[in-house]
Write a structure and sequence with these properties.
Elements (H helix, E strand, L loop, with lengths): L3 E14 L5 E15 L4 E5 L6 H8 L7 E6 L2 E2 L4 H4 L3 E4 L12 H11 L4 H14 L15 H12 L6 E5 L7 H16 L3 E6 L2 H7 L2 E6 L2 E6 L1 H6 L5 E8 L3 H9 L5 E7 L2 E8 L2 H11 L7 E5 L3 H9 L2 H4 L1
Parallel strand pairs: 3-8, 3-9, 6-7, 7-8
Antiparallel strand pairs: 1-2, 1-4, 4-5, 9-10, 11-13, 11-14, 12-13
The structure holds adenosine-5'-diphosphate and magnesium ion.
The site of adenosine-5'-diphosphate has 12 residues, from strand 1, strand 2 and helix 1.
Length: 326
């Protein structure tokens, strides 16, 4: 049996705009999605804001109806078999909602254990284990209102596991966390997967998916653009070395000449505090460095480095730069 099976799934949202002359507008959030996730997989759904990640996660976790097509989780239909399916899945939508601030972390999990009808003799053992898994044991009896964002997110995950689900849905679990908290959380996610949970995770962080997931689907504007392993995804750009040049006052002419250079596949530019960082994707980039620097004459080149392409470069190649900034 597959863990998740999605067939020709679509979702349209109808909204109305305007106050005087109201016009109806349909937004296609998902279109013809096909996807299979195997039991035990840690699967990543990667895509920019508005791509449809949350919509898909909500449909799979039975809290939103699809407009077309179908989906099964653990062999059960997400529309018809919700009653049977819900006890077998966990979902973490993160953020500040869904926790009781005046209760302790431990009491929050107890509350959800009761809600899920977990037998007391089971929850008595499971709750300390979950607190331990997410690293909250020492702070478990403090009120949640005093928790940091990272701690709340860990508590969300413990809550999502309270019914010992077979499949766990995590929607952008590390969003808004500081780097250390995010890293701790990623370790928890890997540990859960090691313990046999199928995990369906959404993210718009390339490195996160690269680090965690066995396979990744890239979704953009409601459609799947690619499904593969992170390393295969990176292979798409393996022939492209990336030359990073830090400089000041790059002229539009120099930038245009760089882009027109026969050995340059793409150039992206970021501005920070008056300095520019140019990311030049170029086959055989190292040999071309002297030429690139010559083109940038007058732009005060401060630093030049070369690096291997990352998943982010593959993403830019696949979806274009706009997808990163949205
Ligand atoms: N309840 C809703 N009503 C109308 N449009 C929605 C609703 N939820 C999501 N959308 C739209 O569907 C698209 C996908 O949204 P979402 O699934 O939240 O994307 P993501 O999680 O990848 O950022 C967006 O265009 C969004 O505006
Ligand atoms: Mg979302």
């Amino acid at each position: 049996m597959t863990a998740i099976k999605i067939e020709n799934l679509g979702r349209i949202f109808s909204t109305t705009t305007g106050t005087i002359r109201r016009t109806r507008k349909d937004i296609t959030a998902l279109e013809n999605i096909n996807l299979v996730v195997e039991p035990g997989e840690l699967f990543g759904l990667l895509g920019p804001n508005g791509a449809g990640k949350t919509t898909l996660t909500r449909i799979l976790s039975t809290v939103l109806l699809p407009s077309s097509g179908r989906a099964e989780v653990l062999g059960m239909d997400v529309v018809r078999d919700t009653k049977k399916l819900r006890p077998r899945i966990g979902m973490v939508f993160g953020g500040e909602r869904g926790l009781y601030w005046r209760l302790s972390g431990r009491d929050n999990i107890q509350y959800f254990a009761d809600l899920y009808l977990v037998p007391p003799e089971v929850s008595r053992k499971r709750i300390p284990e979950l607190l331990d898994l997410v690293g909250l044991t020492e702070r478990a009896d403090e009120r949640v209102e005093g928790y940091s964002r990272g701690m709340k997110q860990k508590l969300h995950i413990a809550r999502g596991l309270v019914n010992d689900p077979d499949v766990l849905f995590l929607d952008e679990p590390t969003i808004g966390l500081d780097p250390i908290a995010a890293r701790e959380l990623r370790a928890v996610i890997l540990e859960m997967n090691k313990r046999g949970k199928t995990i369906f995770l959404t993210s718009h962080y390339m490195y996160e998916v690269d680090e965690l997931c066995q396979r990744v689907a890239v979704v953009n504007k409601g459609k799947i653009a690619l499904i593969d392993t992170p390393s295969a995804f990176k292979t798409m750009v393996a022939d492209l070395e990336v030359v990073e040049i830090e400089c000041r006052e790059v002229s539009p002419e120099a930038l245009a000449r760089l882009r027109a250079h026969p050995r340059v596949a793409s150039v992206t530019m970021e501005n920070h505090e008056g300095a520019q960082s140019l990311q030049i994707q170029s086959p055989g980039g190292v040999e071309s460095i002297p030429e690139f620097v010559r083109i940038l004459e007058g732009s005060q080149v401060q630093k030049v480095i070369t690096r291997q392409p990352t998943l982010e470069d593959a993403y830019v190649k696949l979806l274009g730069r706009e997808a990163l900034n949205s």
